[in-house]
TrEMBL record, chain A:
Protein name (database record): Nicotinate dehydrogenase FAD-subunit
2Fe-2S ferredoxin-type domain boundaries: 1-83
SMART domains with a match to the protein in the record: CO_deh_flav_C
UniProt keyword list: FAD, Flavoprotein, Iron, Metal-binding, Oxidoreductase
Record organism: Calidithermus roseus
Listed GO MF terms: 2 iron, 2 sulfur cluster binding; FAD binding; iron ion binding; nicotinate dehydrogenase activity
InterPro entries: 2Fe-2S-bd, 2Fe-2S-bd_dom_sf, 2Fe-2S_ferredoxin-like_sf, 2Fe-2S_ferredoxin-type, 2Fe2S_fd_BS, Ald_Oxase/xanthine_DH-like, Beta-grasp_dom_sf, CO_DH_flav_C
Its EC number(s): 1.17.1.5
Ranges of residues in domain FAD-binding PCMH-type: 177-350
Automatic annotation (TrEMBL), chain B:
Stored Pfam families: Ald_Xan_dh_C, MoCoBD_1, MoCoBD_2
Gene3D superfamilies per UniProt: Aldehyde oxidase/xanthine dehydrogenase, a/b hammerhead, Aldehyde oxidase/xanthine dehydrogenase, molybdopterin binding domain
Sample GO molecular function, one term: iron ion binding
SMART domains: Ald_Xan_dh_C
Lineage, highest ranks first: Bacteria, Thermotogati, Deinococcota, Deinococci, Thermales
Keyword Disulfide bond in annotation: no
Record-annotated Aldehyde oxidase/xanthine dehydrogenase a/b hammerhead domain positions: 18-124
Protein name: Putative xanthine dehydrogenase molybdenum-binding subunit XdhA
InterPro entries assigned to the protein according to its UniProt record, in alphabetical order: Ald_Oxase/Xan_DH_a/b, Ald_Oxase/Xan_DH_a/b_sf, Ald_Oxase/xanthine_DH-like, AldOxase/xan_DH_MoCoBD1, AldOxase/xan_DH_MoCoBD2, AldOxase/xan_DH_Mopterin-bd_sf, Xanthine_DH_Mopterin-bd_su
Top-tier EC class: oxidoreductase
Family: Belongs to the xanthine dehydrogenase family.
Cofactor(s) this protein cannot do without: [2Fe-2S] cluster; Mo-molybdopterin cytosine dinucleotide; Mo-molybdopterin; FAD
EC number: 1.17.1.4
Length: 464, 768
């Protein structure tokens, strides 16, 4: 296996396929990248990949702790050690020095790389987008100096890094890596993938890796066979049709966010609340649905939009409504050797749709409760259609069909709201855990609907 | 030109941004044949270890050995109280290591650890302060501080109230987890690289475990990726295990805790329970207060007693209470041994009195800021432990200045107007003061040493006992040395902290790093200048008293153009056989405290500050945003303004994390349920206030402290109490007056239930 590291070609062999890029870098003496958590939360391990983005070649910040080394096959990586050239600091580095952006310095290389990726982003606006740094934690500074450093940055200088962006990014092709500990296979087409999976149904699928690698790093799960989904063009589609939108299951959420112009409000609200930009640069919808976490954030949003999933196996394809996809705690309708190809979102999008996420921290936290709501009002302020979907209130993401039905045809009023809230208390039995108590979860399921009610009622001029 | 007081970047800033700055675990590739260590974790919070059989672990390829109690040549504890066994016979907290496996790879060691067979007899565990109180399970106390007769003053007071507040602990979450690498050095000694705030104590513990005199052990701390108190004592077990492994195997051994182990094994800020009674008049003037503090110390003493003392010393915060009685207890529970954390108990003590004052104000229907102000210390008053509150007038001065600069009054009105027209979202505003005592309360720690070396080319090495963890002690000491010696910053190299350069050092803690070490370095530089002055005087043809040292030039006073370069004088001094190295030493004068009487002068001085915060709370969910914070803080004459501002802002944000979103939750088995980065949330960008104004108090030189500066490491953390109080203010706005009960951390869930409570009261009131 080969990749390009700070401009130099490197060969990897013998290492376990589940070795992370971060561990590899540090063991190779590139100790600038730090481990603060090994689960994608702190960003101390941030590096950039040279990738094809919606606006051409770009430097894409990723958590090196969440990449299995073989996923790098054919890729181009820069680490913090690669930035300063001929003894001269890169602008992002100089800005951090000047503004006092480092105290203990442990988070600094990660911030530098996130700053770098954003400064060189081809479609960046004139102001530095601070959100680009929200996947990096700092325990010392309180962020203000880092913010000032970021805001001081102008457009990327005309240097060799900028020049690199004028050339195409590496194209990920099929790859195979093997060592004593296991095997990694990256098929180059859906056909190839399904054929392989038919023979090896036990293989662990890895798309962006933001769940799978955490499982490896923290639960020490080991697999003999990994199948990488990153080089399958069929999983990367983004197609607008008359009656629906098709989103490739393997598209990173970061790409999706930038490509989905005119997304409905629920989706625009959902993106920034989903993990961090670093995670979104890798994470996929296929992975979020495939992992079937009851607190995953895409299900409530997609359920509210009445989405369906296209599933393919060696036997052929089928489309399953998302509401029928989750079968139990972390169980899905996927059969052996099947993959999610895409997510289908029907059009037109609902007139009102909102995404709410209650968590301890406002950004980059896992939901205590998440809700996706969609509403269509008919004549006389009556509910023509409503969809209520939740995460964090049951063993799977849920849609509350009974409540939806009871609301349909009723006036969108406080009285209806109270009735619906009462029914919610009957419909769900959340649990207590370290994120929140069962009582709070239930109350949030009710209160978020109330919030949705007041916001839509005032938007519609309905008097509550 | 003054070097001291200049806003320069951190002395390692360029190394930080390029990734060249080395931390302990970055040395791993420098040691061929390095062995990796992994602990065998007990799956119970409290249990007897009946049997331990490592034999199956040894069958795992790559496993080299398993460290157990039999391997310890000295004393098998990591604390000098001998109450923290490295290989316990009785497990005292969930996840406590009972043995350590050494492997050629981390994976081998980890797999080996799963194969060690241990038989346990589970025992009942005490997992909360309440359970400990009920069971009479205490590590220390009752400790007492008092003035006057609180009981009878309470009885006489026209108004009284009582209350209770629970304050959660806090995980340090230094970005760099605990790490040590130990090896046998070239001359038969033991060399330990450790991420430790107290290399001398780490040396002491390693020597004790190995049964060696301390001169056989050298500990070096390159720098830390954050400490915050979490590496004051708690680095020692990992250094000891690395050293023991190296001693046994003759291989270098690395111990580095991944985050989830670091969080499971290392001590945290003490959770507290505060109970109080207050007697006051109609204007909210405090007449008598009785406070009872219970801290959750975890399983062993560690620093819990001094932490509790400091909480009790700060139970007055900035307020004069004529009759005040504070009692403290350290509860013993089956949890990690809780430890130092920025503020060292002071913050918990202050939260209690601020909670009390807020309640007094709300019970009277008065603005909390008016009640706070009424109770400030005035010049000449003393604390409840008998120390004069030096510069007490600064409390009021800071308060008035900050109220004006933050436009508190105008914004009070705006917030009220906003709240009147916004049923579902409310804003809250609060201003709170900080008075924080500087010095180790254990008097003997208030000493420091330094060793300054000048080489014949004029370049300088500075060694001192302080460790660098991001707080900027090296930067400040560098500025002090450059100023004192009159050489440019670039000519000075600050050396990594090592026990073989300066012995018997104190922990870098209690905010004293720059005060103590800066003064010691200053003294060494003064000695060297005194020796160089006569040599220079001969060159310059002037009296030695008239010789001035500035920026690498030596010249007669008032005649800078007649300079000779520093290096030339140094060389001449060498040829004249004058020693070009000197030790410096400093001890803080005049400190004393009698624990029995609870009286004395434990602090050299006080650091002051105040903050105003404004928040907005969502009534549907209890979620909130911090809209704006204004800070005015007293750093004396800042040695290094960029560093000091960083400490103020960073401390504030860390404090707001502690009080609002960082939540330690232990499950029924005593396992830390929020034991990872995905479950335990630090402040991120979203917690940074939308507007943050930070200013330093002007004309604030502190006489008797190095270059008139003041310590700044800890005090700003407590500025975040303003956020907690602002949240209570917003919660109150959902109801119709009356007190607000809110424990810390005020997570959205707690805020939500607090809102429900005040709303319910409102409905009752309306119903009446
Ligand atoms: C720091 C951090 C923060 C996070 N925050 C959030 C958050 O806010 N909200 C949230 O919902 N999630 C969050 N997550 C979880 C995670 O990012 C998502 O679940 C992500 O969408 C997974 O996508 P992936 O491509 O990385 O999955 P991978 O890890 O590659 O795969 C996950 C699982 O899905 C299966 N899978 C992947 N692709 C397919 C496919 N095409 N067909 C069938 N099965 C497939 C794989 O078998 C695998 O087991 C967070 C994770 C991290 C590390
Ligand atoms: S180490 Fe924390 S995100 Fe990778
Ligand atoms: S500078 Fe220490 S974590 Fe950011």
């Amino acid at each position: 296996m080969e990749f390009v590291l700070n401009g130099r070609r490197v060969q990897v062999e013998k290492l376990a396929p589940q070795t992370t890029l971060l561990d590899y870098l540090r063991a190779s003496g590139l100790t600038g990248s730090k481990e603060g958590c090994a689960e994608g939360e702190c960003g101390a391990c941030t590096v950039v990949l040279v990738r094809e983005g919606p606006a051409g070649t770009e430097y894409r910040g990723v958590n090196s702790c969440l990449l299995f080394l073989p996923m790098l096959a054919g890729q181009e990586v820069y680490t913090v050690e690669g930035l300063a050239q001929d003894g001269k600091l890169a602008e992002v580095q100089a800005a951090m020095v000047q503004h006092g952006g480092s105290q203990c310095g442990y988070c600094t290389p990660g911030f530098v790389m996130s700053l770098f990726a954003e400064q060189y982003r081809p479609d960046r606006g004139p102001e530095f987008d601070l959100h680009a740094l929200s996947g990096n934690l700092c325990r010392c500074t309180g962020y203000r100096p880092i913010k000032d450093a970021a805001l001081s940055l102008g457009p990327a200088p005309e240097d060799s890094f900028k020049a690199r962006l004028r050339e195409p990014a590496p194209v990920l092709g099929p790859a195979v890596y093997e060592s004593e500990q296991g095997r990694f296979v990256r098929p180059g087409s859906l056909e190839e993938c399904l054929t392989f999976l038919a023979l090896h149904p036990e293989a662990k699928l890895v798309a962006g890796g933001t769940d799978a690698v955490v499982e490896s790093n923290l639960q020490y799960r080991r697999w003999e066979l990994l199948v990488g989904l990153e080089a399958i063009p069929e999983l990367k589609v983004f197609e607008e049709h008359e009656d629906m939108l098709e989103i490739g299951a393997g598209l990173s959420l970061g790409e999706l966010e930038r490509r989905w112009k005119g997304a409905p409000q629920i989706v625009r609200e959902w993106f920034p609340l989903f993990a961090s930009p670093l995670i979104r640069n890798s994470a996929t919808l296929g992975g979020n649905l495939g992992t079937a976490s009851p607190i995953g954030d895409s299900p409530p949003m997609l359920l509210a939009l009445d989405a369906a999933v296209r599933i393919a196996g060696k036997e052929g394809e089928r489309v399953v409504p998302l509401a029928e996809f989750f079968k139990g705690y972390r169980q899905t309708a996927l059969g052996k050797g099947e993959v999610i190809v895409s997510v289908l979102v029907p059009k037109p999008f609902p007139a009102h749709s909102r995404f709410f996420k209650v968590a301890k921290r406002r950004l980059d936290d896992i939901s205590t409760v998440a809700a996706g709501f969609a509403l269509e009002l008919g004549g006389a302020g009556r509910v023509a259609r409503v969809r209520l979907a939740y995460g964090g209130v049951a063993a799977t993401p849920v849609r509350l069909f009974a409540v939806e039905e009871a609301l349909t045809g009723q006036p969108w009023s406080e009285a209806s709201l109270r009735r619906a809230q009462g029914m919610i208390a009957e419909a769900i039995k959340p649990i207590s855990d370290h994120r929140g108590s069962a009582e709070y979860r239930l109350r949030m399921a009710q209160k978020l609907l109330e919030k949705f009610y007041y916001e839509t009622a005032s938007a519609e001029g309905v008097k509550g | 030109m003054k070097v001291v007081g200049k806003a320069i970047p951190h002395e390692s800033a360029v190394e930080h941004v390029t990734g060249r700055a080395l931390y302990t675990d970055d040395l791993l590739t420098r040691f061929p044949d390095l062995l990796h260590a992994w602990p065998v974790l007990a799956p119970h919070a409290h249990a007897k270890v009946l049997a331990l059989d490592p034999s199956r672990a040894l069958e795992v390829p790559g496993v080299v050995t398993v460290l157990t109690a039999e391997d310890v040549p000295g004393v098998g504890h990591s604390s000098h109280y001998h109450d923290e066994p490295l290989f316990p016979a009785e497990v005292m907290f969930h996840g406590q290591p009972v043995a350590w496996v050494l492997g050629e790879s981390l994976e081998a060691a980890r797999l080996g650890a799963t194969r060690v067979e241990v038989e346990y007899e589970p025992l009942p565990a005490i997992l909360s302060i309440e359970e400990a109180i009920a069971a009479g399970s205490f590590l220390a106390g009752p400790l007492r501080l008092s003035r006057g007769d609180a009981a009878s003053a309470l009885a006489r007071a026209p108004r009284r109230l009582s209350g209770e507040v629970r304050i959660g602990g806090q995980e340090h979450f230094y970005l760099e987890t605990h790490a040590s690498i130990a090896h046998l050095d070239e001359s038969g000694g033991v060399m330990v690289h450790a991420s430790t705030q107290h290399p001398s104590e780490t040396q002491e513990v390693v020597a004790m475990v190995l049964g060696l005199p301390r001169n056989q052990v050298t500990v070096q701390c390159l720098r830390m990726g954050g400490g915050f108190g979490g590496k004051e004592t708690q680095a020692n077990p990992y250094a000891a295990i690395a050293a023991l492994g190296a001693w046994k195997t003759r291989h270098p051994v690395r111990v580095r805790l991944p985050r989830h182990l670091d969080m499971a094994l290392s001590g945290k800020r003490h959770p507290f329970l505060g109970r109080y009674e207050a007697g006051f008049d109609d204007e909210g003037r405090l007449l008598a207060v009785r406070i009872e503090l219970y801290s959750d110390g975890g399983y062993s003493l560690d620093l819990s007693e001094p932490v509790l003392w400091r909480a009790m010393f700060h139970s007055d915060n900035a307020y004069f209470v004529p009759d005040l009685e504070v009692t403290g207890h350290v509860c013993k529970t089956h949890k990690t041994s809780q430890t130092a954390f920025r503020g060292f108990g002071g913050p918990q003590g202050m939260v209690v009195i601020e909670d009390l004052l807020d309640r007094v104000a709300r019970s009277l229907g008065l603005p909390p800021e008016a009640v706070r102000e009424r109770n400030f210390y005035r010049e000449g008053q003393t604390t409840h432990y008998g120390q004069v509150v030096k510069d007490a007038g600064r409390i009021q001065a800071i308060w008035s200045e900050l109220k004006a600069s933050s436009e508190l009054e105008r914004r009070r009105a705006e917030v009220a107007a906003f709240n009147a027209s916004s049923p579902h979202t409310k804003r809250g505003l609060a201003i709170t003061p900080v008075k924080f005592g500087i010095s180790f309360t254990a008097t003997f720690y208030n000493q420091a040493g330094a060793l300054v070396l000048i080489y014949r080319d004029g370049s300088v090495q500075v060694n001192h006992g302080g460790t660098e963890m991001g707080q900027g002690v090296h930067t400040k000491v560098l500025q002090v040395a450059a100023q004192s010696l009159g050489v440019p910053l670039e000519q000075i190299r600050i050396m990594p902290t090592r026990t073989d350069k300066v012995p018997n050092t104190s922990a870098t803690a209690a905010s004293t790093g720059s005060d103590l070490n800066g003064a010691a370095v200053h003294q060494a530089c003064e000695i060297l200048k005194e020796r160089l002055a006569p040599v220079a005087a001969r060159y310059l043809g002037c009296a030695p008293e008239r010789v001035r040292f500035e920026e690498g030039r030596i010249f007669p006073e008032g005649q800078p153009e007649r300079f000779v370069p520093f290096a030339r004088v140094v060389e001449a001094a060498y040829l004249e056989r004058i020693p070009l190295f000197a030790q410096g030493y400093y001890r803080t004068p005049d400190l004393h405290f009698d624990k029995g009487k609870g009286q004395g002068k434990p602090f050299h001085y006080f650091a002051y500050g105040a903050a105003v915060s404004e928040v907005e709370v969502d009534g549907f969910t209890g979620e909130y945003r911090l809209l704006r914070t204004d800070i005015l803080h007293d750093v004396g004459d800042s040695l290094s303004p960029l560093v000091d501002r960083g400490q103020v802002e960073g401390g504030f944000v860390q404090g707001l994390g502690w009080l609002t979103l960082e939540e330690l939750v232990w499950d029924a088995q005593g396992r830390l349920a929020t034991g990872g980065a995905s479950t335990y949330k630090l402040p991120s960008w979203s917690e940074l206030p939308e507007v943050l104004n930070v200013r330093f108090l002007e004309r604030a030189a502190e006489p008797g402290v190095i270059y008139g500066s003041k310590a700044v490491g800890e005090p700003p953390l407590m500025l975040a109490i303003s956020v907690r109080e602002a949240l209570k203010d917003a919660v109150a706005a959902f109801g119709q007056g009356g007190i607000v009960e809110l424990d810390a951390p005020s997570t959205p869930e707690r805020v939500y239930w607090a809102i429900e409570k005040v709303r319910a009261r409102k409905e009752v009131a309306v119903g009446d």
